[in-house]
Specification:
Chain A is an alpha+beta fold and about 400 residues long. Chain A has seven helices and 18 strands. In chain A, strands 4, 5, 12, 13, 14 and 15 form a six-stranded antiparallel sheet that branches. Chain A has a four-stranded antiparallel sheet with strand order 3-18-17-16, with no helix packed on it. In chain A, a hairpin with a 7-residue loop joins strand 4 and strand 5. In chain A, helix 2 runs antiparallel to helix 3 and helix 5 packs antiparallel against helix 7. The chains are: A alpha+beta (about 400), B mainly alpha (about 650).
Chain lengths: ~400, ~650
């Protein structure tokens, strides 16, 4: 047998389909159970958005492949599906439902892949009366250096948290000093020295750092808890070290210093996405059913103003009724009525329409396919009955 | 003569069902029905006292039946009246369910002192309430998934005690108040003088100190009632239909003092309580009628709904259906042994009746709630069973061999038993939380998924019939086996269609409300596993990897997959869908899974160990050649 045709036979076989589906079921099941330990985001990275699921040998740090990951299984299913349709299927009306279903599945898988690549989620948190032009991604932080010397504009250089986490030295052409990360903690608790007088000495020498005690904590994977990262960074200019700063998302205000006659601010903060329009929170509403604590409705009335001046209008965002605006979608996500606070989930997903198209194809395809089955069945019963009557 | 049996069976069933719809006549002069139909506001919904009584009993003690220490059986409404008005009587009823020995120990009690070893009275618990509260506060600090069975039971008992205490301080101050009605009547007379005393004191003028003090005492009492009451019973005056205007009696009394007149509805409820306490039926009936009249103007619609709901509660259509399903199952099973035609038709008749009754029950619930059929786990159980039975009726109409009737009897009965156990949480018609408050998505995504579940279970149970009849009896002949295989295959196709559609609809709902089509949330993953499983089954069959028996075993495994998705994922306690769940269900889920695996093992026995091997002999011939024409799916035909 020629090797090419046996490879082809393998990739177009129904056995491969069944095997891949079985492996997918195991993958999804294990990933679901592991959510209790890892939380939703880590599970997606470990099981689905990967080619192989890595595990660690007991009591070591050695990673070994344990199981095919979501990308590998999804990719193979896609190959299986596409090659089968090219080499095995021939179009017929009887077959049309199945082909439509499979085409829908392809769109769905591709859509999910694109979503994984393109989707960006962030949060727009506002108090009544406040206006913001950016949303924040609390799962990703950045170390921001802001040069505020120019009266016209600020210059911002931001270093992703992942680079900070790698420690070591970092240089950037727009930074007139060298940056060295002395220590980094994924999760930490910060207290003033008065609150914890027995805390060990700190390496911080500048900014608020010397007055603060930092305690390293275990990273949390719970969906309702957020890690508070902290780092000690040493800056040095041409003439030598400028000092060591403590930075953390727990410190609300950026710390200011001067270097070469220029004013800089430094802060570890949530990654920000700026938009060419502003959102103002006018009013939050939280209704409960009369005589109960059961929430009936959460709604935020906001005013959207675009920079080009073409848009200036009021919108109400509530559960199951998001605002889609300039490629972003705003969903009602958090609320504190007493403090007039709202949190809107901001999602940018250019491929959002694909699942809708896929759904129509899948549902329609299956309906057509099974309708053919039913018709064939009814016709056969009819023939059988007339046969009985005839005898 | 024999041919009339099916008609006779139907007639008896019809009479039985009709009798449940009639108002119950009891040997009492109290017009309990009128009182039971009065609407009150609880958790955002106007419902009759009758529902309050039944759900409170379920929450407190896990059943609606209540027997007094002297052996009298009370109706739920009689029990509620005692709780609301006569603490002296109600405090000795054994209606606090405690299922944990360590919790019983907290009160220095022995199981033998309780009703049935596990139901205790408030009087028995009274001394240990302080300790219960301390333990509950300790347990509160532990995260829910990490709590021990003791801590969970402590919290549950604490909630039960609170519910009881709140019920008791709804219509009168808690504890044995001498005569609240007389107190209010007196207040009515002295109110102007008392108000004058309070005003005078505020201005610093001479005043009646005694009147002022008794006034302050009353206000304090009403304040406590207002903050602890469970039921909101007093409608706003006039034609005001806003539910936000309803008040607890405590609040209505506080407002009465401002207004200078005692609220008439509060007085009527107090009069009713006095009459119930004193056992004077004439004044009880008079007060109940007055309350009814008071609501007739602005709340005629609510009153009508309350009426229907109370009647619905009393008729217990799902309980009657349960009995009918069992009878249908027995008749259908018997039809395989004797009188095949007569018993088969009787079974079908009973089934149709049970189906009609559950349909009526579900429709009534839908009308009362103003919602699509599935709004919570309880109603999903009702609906999943309903779908399976509906499919069975269609299949039975085609095949006429009682197989689908047996399946319908089992699935219908089991679904109603599951629903019964899910109703222990309290009101099964609670209001929908904000994110779920969308009739469009409830009607599409949720209903479609529930239809998919129903079909999946039906396929599994039909497959169990195949395995059990084949291995344990000699009755599985070739024709029946082929027919069953076609049924299972057809139902699997149906289940796949609805599970796929329902799952993608769920994705679209998630995209609308949370901003992502798919989030790998446990419930979504559960649905995905169902979809993957049935596509695996279909592809394995189309590829000739499984034949009849293999298909049966895969369908039975589908039961485990579906049950896991329906209930199992909720037990993980993570994710956006983890609302409302009971913990003893975990045990039963494992038992169910084990039983399904056991049937699959039996099904995997070699054919020569099957008792039906001779009847199936024709099968050997048809299994040998590749695949018979009928078993080949269109794909395969097209591929050839």
């Amino acid at each position: 047998m020629r090797p090419l045709s046996s490879i082809l036979r393998f990739f177009t076989s129904l056995q491969l389909t069944v095997g891949l589906i079985a492996l997918s079921i195991v993958l999804v099941l294990v990933a679901t159970l592991d959510q209790v330990n890892l939380g939703l985001l880590a599970v997606q990275e470990k099981y689905f958005r990967t080619f192989v699921v890595l595990g660690r040998l007991p009591n070591t740090d050695i990673a070994v492949p344990m199981f095919p990951g979501g990308y590998l299984l999804g990719g193979l299913l896609l190959v299986n599906l596409v090659t089968s349709h090219i080499y095995r299927f021939r179009f017929s009306w009887k077959n049309s439902g199945l082909m439509l279903t499979h085409a829908g599945l392809i769109v769905l898988l591709v859509g999910e892949l694109l979503t994984g690549l393109w989707q960006r989620e962030s949060l727009l948190q506002l108090r009544e009366g406040a206006t913001r032009r950016y949303s924040e991604d609390f799962n990703h932080n950045e170390l921001a250096f802001i040069n505020t010397s120019s009266p016209q504009h600020d210059v911002v250089v931001s270093v992703p948290e992942t680079l900070v986490a790698d420690r070591g030295a970092i240089e950037h052409p727009q930074l007139p000093f060298k940056l060295r990360v002395i220590d980094y903690m994924k999760n930490a608790a910060l207290q003033t020295r008065e609150q914890s007088p027995h805390a060990p000495a700190t390496v911080a020498t500048a900014g608020v750092g010397p007055r603060i005690a930092v305690q390293r904590l275990k990273p949390s994977y719970k969906s309702d808890e957020r890690n508070v990262p902290a780092a000690f960074i040493e800056l040095s200019g041409a003439t030598g070290p400028l000092g060591t700063w403590l930075v953390s998302t727990a410190l609300e205000q950026p710390q200011q210093f001067t270097h070469d006659g220029q004013t800089w601010k430094v802060a570890l903060r949530s990654k920000r996405y700026y938009a060419p329009y502003s959102v103002t929170l006018l009013k939050v509403t939280h209704d409960v059913y009369p005589g109960s604590e059961i929430p009936k409705n959460f709604a935020s009335r906001v005013r959207v103003r675009s920079d080009d001046g073409h848009d200036d209008r009021e919108v109400v965002i509530f559960m199951n009724n998001p605002l889609r605006y300039q490629g972003q979608t705003y969903y009602q996500h958090q609320m504190n009525k007493a403090e007039g606070f709202t949190g809107l989930q901001v999602v940018r997903n250019p491929s959002w329409a694909l699942p809708y198209i896929a759904s129509i194809m899948l549902g329609g395809g299956l309906a057509v396919q099974f309708a053919f089955h039913l018709l064939a069945f009814v016709r056969r019963r009819h023939n059988a009955t007339s046969l009985v009557l005839a005898t | 003569m024999k041919k009339f049996i099916p008609h006779l069976v139907l007639l008896v069933a019809a009479i039985t069902v009709a009798s449940t719809l009639l108002p119950t006549r009891r040997k009492t002069d109290f017009d309990l029905a009128t009182f039971g139909r009065l609407p009150v506001l609880v958790n955002g919904r106007l419902k009759p006292f009758d529902t309050v009584a039944r759900t409170s009993l379920l929450v407190l003690q896990g059943r609606q039946r209540i027997v007094t220490p002297d052996g009298r059986t009370l109706t739920p409404i009689e029990w509620l009246l005692d709780v609301l008005y006569v603490p002296g009587r109600a405090d000795i009823y054994g209606h606090f369910l405690i299922e944990n020995q360590e919790v019983i120990d907290l009160f220095s009690l022995r199981p033998s002192e309780g009703d049935g070893g596990k139901r205790f009275s408030y009087a028995q618990l009274a001394k240990g309430i302080g300790e219960l509260d301390r333990q509950a506060r300790l347990a509160d600090e532990v995260e829910a998934p990490l709590r021990t069975p003791f801590q969970r039971q402590v919290l549950r008992l604490r909630d039960r005690v609170i519910l009881y205490q709140r019920l008791q301080s709804t219509l009168k101050p808690a504890g044995e108040s001498a005569d609240f009605f007389a107190e209010l009547r007196k207040l009515e007379k002295t109110l102007p003088a008392s108000i004058a005393a309070v005003r005078a004191r505020q201005r610093g003028e001479p005043h009646d100190e005694a009147a002022f003090k008794s006034m302050m005492e009353l206000v304090r009492k009403f304040d406590v009632m207002q903050s602890t009451a469970y039921l909101i019973t007093i409608p706003p005056a006039g034609e005001n239909k806003d539910l936000n205007g309803w008040k607890t009696p405590g609040q209505a009394l506080v407002d009465s003092i401002d207004a200078g007149v005692v609220d008439r509805t509060v007085l009527a409820y107090a009069a009713l309580g006095y009459a119930w306490h004193a056992g004077t039926s004439a004044s009880f009936n008079e007060a109940a009628a007055a309350l009814h009249e008071r609501l007739e103007g602005a709340y005629a619609a609510a009153l009508a709904k309350s009426d229907v709901e109370a009647r619905f509660n009393a008729a217990q259509p799902f309980y009657t259906s349960m009995v009918l399903f069992v009878l249908a199952l027995l008749a259908a099973l018997a039809s395989w042994l004797i009188w095949p035609d007569v018993l088969r038709r009787s079974a079908l008749g009973l089934l149709a009746f049970a189906f009609a009754l559950t349909t009526a029950g579900i429709l009534t619930r839908m009308w009362l709630e103003g919602r699509p059929p599935v709004t919570n786990l309880y109603s999903s159980a009702l609906f999943v069973g309903w779908v399976a039975v509906a499919l069975c009726l269609v299949i039975e109409a085609i095949y006429k061999n009682a197989v689908a009737s047996v399946a319908a009897g089992v699935v219908g009965f089991c679904a109603l038993v599951i629903a019964h156990h899910l109703s222990m949480g309290g009101d099964t018609m609670e209001m929908m939380r904000a994110v779920l408050d969308s009739n469009f998505w409830l009607a599409t995504h949720v209903v479609t998924i529930a239809i998919g579940y129903g079909a999946a279970f039906l396929a599994g149970f039909l497959a169990i019939i195949y395995i059990v009849r084949g291995t344990l009896t000699k009755s599985l002949d070739r024709g029946t086996a082929d027919g069953l295989a076609r049924m299972v295959y057809g139902v699997i196709c149906f289940a796949t269609l609805f599970n796929v559609t329902g799952t993608v609809l769920g994705g679209i709902w998630a995209d609308q409300s949370w901003g992502r089509f798919w989030g790998w949330d446990p419930k979504e993953n559960g649905a995905l596993i169902i979809v993957l499983w049935y596509s695996l089954v279909l592809h394995a069959r189309w590829g000739g990897m499984v034949r009849q028996r293999g298909l049966m075993n895969l369908a039975i495994f589908g039961n485990i997959v579906t049950a896991w998705s329906w209930f199992g994922v909720n037990m993980l306690g993570v994710g956006l869908h983890s609302y409302g769940f009971t913990d003893s269900a975990a045990f039963w889920l494992v038992v169910f899974g084990g039983s399904q695996l056991a049937v699959m093992m039996i099904g995997a026995l070699p054919l020569d160990k099957w008792r039906s091997r001779h009847a199936l002999a024709g099968a050997m011939a048809s299994i040998q050649p590749p695949v018979s024409e009928e078993q080949v799916a269109p794909t395969e035909l097209a591929c050839r």
